[in-house]
Amino acid sequence: MYPLNDKYYLQLVRDSSECLNIELHHHGILIRIVSLNNDHCSTLTHRLCETVDEFNVLIIDLLETSISNIRVTVDENLEISFPVRFGSRNYEKLWSFIIELRLETNTADEISLDPSDWNDLRLLGHKIMDNMIDYMRDVRLRPTWRPLPLTIKETILNGDLPLQGQSPWQVYDEVFTMILPYVIGNIHPLFWGHVYGTGSTIGALAEFITGTMNTMSWGGQQASIYLERKVLSWLKQLIGFPNDETSSGILVSGTSVATIIALAVARKKFHERTMIIYCTKDAHSCIIRAANLLGINKENIVYVSTNEQRQIDLQALEACIDPNTCGFIVGSAGTVGTGAIDDLQGLADICARRPNDLWFHVDGAIGAVACCSRRLRPLFTGLERADSIAFDLHKWLSVPYECGCILVRDGELHRSTFVQPTVSYLTLMDGGITPSEGEHFFSDYGLELSRNTKAVKVWMTLKTYGIERFGRIMEQNVDQALYFAHLIEQHSNQFELLAKVTLNIVCFRYIVRQSNTIDENDMLNKFNKRLLTMIQERGIAIVSPFVIGTNTFALRMCITNHRTRLTDMDKFIEQMIQVARELLSTDEFAILKTIGSV
Ligand SMILES: Cc1ncc(COP(=O)(O)O)c(C=O)c1O
Questions:
Q1: 393 in the same domain as 491
Q2: pLDDT digits over 74-131, tens only?
Q3: What is the pLDDT of residue 544?
Q4: Do 245 and 224 lie in a common domain?
Q5: Rounded to whole angstroms, what are the CA distances from 111 to 114, 115, 116?
Q6: How many Cα atoms are found within 13 Å in the side-chain-facing hemisphere of 226?
Q7: Ligand 1 mean position to 256 CA, how many Å?
Q8: Does the residue 64 lie in any domain?
Q9: Which atom of ligand 1 is nearest to the CA of 195?
Q10: Domain-terminating residue out of 30, 62, 84
Q11: Which residues of the chain have a pLDDT value below 70?
Q12: pLDDT at 45
């Protein structure tokens, strides 16, 4: 570090390609980097050296010069001069160089979106970075959720089409005050609603890098394609899927899109034959949406009954499989409602008996990534035998939204489903950015041509934290769910558990006693619905609704949250009891209080 005066200092840095860079810092903020390769050297005025080598010598001399001998002049440029011993070192000369501080002015009429003052952008960038890191660090200090004030809703909705631009500082200020505080809250430690992911600090930084590169990852000669191929191969390895070129995969926005892809590939396989979808009522609605989109009739969806553990009943399935048609059999590696895991090995066995007619698909949105844990992995045995697995990385793997994945056992079939006849504007060439030889085009494996780069955030997340740490977090979440279920059982006068906890989901409700009449159940449903919204609206925690059986309203906690601690469970149940007491004291629910005291 080289202080020049009270405002500026220089730092000499060797970068990874061994190039010497001079960094100029102003009040601690890096404002210029001058790379001493030949091109950049011309941006630097130096009077006594003509080549980069000479300049390197000069810099070394600078380092050896005592600070008191350095003269710094700042006007439009920063001029730094200092005496050095020269040649045989028996005489001194004054060397100086100038770093331009003037902003580049565009003399032509051409415009771009780049700032006229890069330093100003840098300052804004530093401010945003500081705010975002504080935002993540302090998340526990905020309520889980707070309602969006009407004034802010109106301000957002009334905003005029911006014909003229404005200062990015002002625009950011609006984001900071109007958007950031009013999110659904899924990065909060006490958020356990639906199946949300928490993201991570590294994931957030990766998103910034991805946005800066803004590279379009359909294919071509670029590192992001290799990165995606690599992360897909890691995911196959993790799951135990064939990890070679015979199988295929692609990162997509989520399991919903992954399911559409899986169903489209299966339909391609069975082309002119009738394909029936077999799933349970507990299967996620994305299966039905994919079927609708692909024109599969309602009559061709068969709902198979479940057993006591809410798993697909294998005998019932075998009994309803039509031997004259093809089948797309859906297994769940964690159902959305209760986290039940189907007997995936049993399903794989059934499909293996008629491999030409039955396709084994697994919805692993929640559970597939739990293969990170050695302890949890056996729950999913058989997953690796699926013909296709749709799963999410933005849920339990904490990759920032959006990021899901589809893996397909028959890679060639997968490609043939999506590949298009060549069109002139996408012709691959003998070289250049889109060479025909040896390149992998992800647009041949999914719905999109233009697609963003998801691999950087996955790659950075996996490399930074490592699979074992994720495995431990998932075990921690499962243990927290079991602990909460235990707390519910301990408070059996006030709560009841509504489903067995097999993974990270707890379904429960507040009771005044075991209800035994329909009316009472309806009243309890109403009570629990109010309890749920009050908990949410007070920012205590977030759990979400689920209906067990035909008419039992449950509060549902799903813990896919690396920030949650065991003590949050104690705090949550206590606060829930307080809110329930408050509710019971209202006229509306007085009747329940009476029943409870019977
Ligand atoms: C079991 C299951 N399958 C599929 C999905 C849909 O996934 P996505 O929202 O990523 O499209 C979800 C979402 O929560 C889910 O829980």
A1: no
A2: 777 777 777 766 555 566 667 777 776 655 555 667 899 999 888 889 999 999 999 9
A3: 98
A4: yes
A5: 8, 10, 10
A6: 4
A7: 6
A8: yes
A9: 14
A10: 84
A11: 15-20, 34-52, 54-56, 58-59, 61-67, 84-93, 100-108, 513-519, 596-598
A12: 54
**Tokens read off for 274:** 């009738």
Query: Do 350 and 329 belong together in one domain?
Result: yes
Residues 264, 401 share a domain: yes
> Quick check: 118 and 26 in contact, CB under 8 A?
no
How many domains are contained in the chain? 4
**One domain, residues 258 and 358:** yes
Question: What local confidence, expressed as pLDDT, does residue 55 receive?
Answer: 67
Asked which of 402, 429, 464 is the last residue of a domain, the reply is 464
263/580 Cα distance (integer angstroms)? 45
Mutational pocket test of ligand 1: of 251, 259, 261, 286, the residue with most ligand atoms within 8 Å of the beta carbon: 286
Which residue among 366, 401, 403 has the greatest number of ligand 1 atoms within 8 angstroms of its CB, and so is best to mutate? 366
Q: What is the pLDDT of residue 78?
A: 74
Question: Which atom of ligand 1 has the smallest separation from the CA of 394?
Answer: 10
| Ligand 1 pocket: which of 252, 380, 392, 398 to mutate (most atoms within 8 A of CB) | 392
Q: Give the dihedral sign, CA 215/221/226/232.
A: positive
pLDDT of residue 598: 43
Please name which of 501, 582, 541 lies closest in space to residue 192, comparing C-alpha atoms. 541
| pLDDT given at position 89 | 58
Expressed in angstroms and rounded, the spacing between residue 93 Cα and the centre of ligand 1 is 71
Which residue, judged by its Cα, is nearest atom 14 of ligand 1? Answer: 195
* Closest residue by CA, ligand 1 atom 7: 255
pLDDT tens across 453-490, in order?
999 999 999 999 999 999 999 999 999 999 999 999 99
Domain that holds residue 173: 119-157+166-183
* Longest CA–CA separation in the chain, Å: 105
Pocket of ligand 1 (CB under 6 A): 195, 254-256, 284, 286, 336, 363, 365-366, 392, 404
Residue minimizing CA distance to atom 10 of ligand 1: 254
CA of residue 445 to ligand 1 center, whole Å: 20
* Nearest-angstrom CA–CA distance, 78 and 125: 24
Yes or no: say if 496 and 514 are a contact pair by the CB < 8 Å rule: yes
- Distance between Cα 535 and ligand 1 center (Å): 24
